[in-house]
Amino acid sequence: MKEQLLEVVVKEMQQGVVIINDKGLILYANPFFQETFAVNLPLEGINFTEVVEDAVLLNTVETVLSSEARQSKEITIKGKGNQILEARLIPFSQNGLNGVIGFFHDVTEEKRVEAIKRDFVANVSHELRTPLASIKGYAETLLDGGLEDKGVLKNFLTIIDRHANRMTALIEDLLTLSMLESHQIPMKFEPLDIRVLITNVIQGFEKQAKDKGIELIIESGETYRELPKVMGDRVRLEQVIVNLIDNAIKYTNKGAVRISVRILDNLMQVDVTDTGIGIPEKDLLRIFERFYRVDKGRSRELGGTGLGLAIVKHIIHGHSGKIWVNSNSGGGTTFSFTLPIN
């Protein structure tokens, strides 16, 4: 009874288990091990070297089998694809049978999260270091005698203020993104007229667009005027539209920014299209990542924190919608998102 229960447990484990005798033959392998190493045939009696090609794993198994100290070994190896596995190899000796029991734990997601955390800390440190260094440098210059010249004083204080505002914007975006990811910002859903929302946002960008010679165009056909209302959080959806239009204007030197809305089945789709510099194909898949910038220098120069599109993505997902981008380098960009129509 105990052996049957044990076999059921091992079969259902989300961890690979393999037993190898001192001749290198497999005595047992559970389903998870077979899936991990992409083997569909029964493995009992097959030499371990015929199943596994990883040189580090094979050498470690051989070391554990031949070691008189009978010590366990732990290693990290790669499985199929980009899978990362932590393997623990334990020697055993029972009733004259010697061998190794191997346990394989999939840590791919854990490693991915660790990498994201490392990148996040490194990015935040980098983003804060530059304005802090500038503030410190200009402040030290003023303290060393720059206070005497009012022209220099005003110029330096203006630069310090600009860098302080950049740090404030970064911290605010970090807090917003953190709360969105942890669902600490509740969405206040209400019936919204998307036309009114877009029109109000556009009005705030008219001067900025005019100064760059950019025409702001709102789709005004019959379909647009007859749009149904959607359930959404007014403040958060406004934040989405502001971010997308602001980016479109920033990265367009001439031409137009067009905002259009259409109904597709039970979805409302909003498109923000510009005639700007575009996004290279290699960057499209990463454009919604935190701190990812296509042109790092220009983005910072234009005041971006590198978090806007990550925030936009989380807001749209919080509305059960989708967001994506189509672009060609030098050929303009279209950001699109959908919202369900209830």
How would you explain this protein's 3D organization?
- This protein has helices spanning 2-12, 31-36, 48-51, 55-66, 108-143, 150-181, 194-211, 222-225, 234-250, 281-284, 296-301, 308-318, and strands at residues 16-21, 26-29, 73-78, 84-94, 97-106, 189-192, 214-218, 230-233, 255-264, 267-274, 323-327, 333-340.
- A hairpin with a 2-residue loop joins strand 4 and strand 5.
- 47% of the residues lie in helices and 24% in strands.
- It folds into three domains: 15-106, Beta-Lactamase; 109-185, Orthogonal Bundle (Helix Hairpins), CATH 1.10.287; 187-342, Histidine kinase-like ATPase, C-terminal domain (Heat Shock Protein 90, 2-Layer Sandwich), CATH 3.30.565.10.
- The chain is an alpha+beta fold.
- The strands form three sheets. Strands 2-1-5-4-3 form a five-stranded antiparallel β-sheet, with helices on both faces. It has a five-stranded mixed β-sheet with strand order 7-9-10-12-11.
Helix content: 40-55%
Helix/strand/pairing category: alpha+beta
Mean pLDDT over the residues:
84
Q: From the coordinates shown, what is the CATH architecture of the largest domain? A: 2-Layer Sandwich
Name a few traits of the molecule.
24% strand, Helix Hairpins, elongated, 5-stranded mixed sheet, 12 strands, 342 residues, alpha+beta, single chain, Heat Shock Protein 90
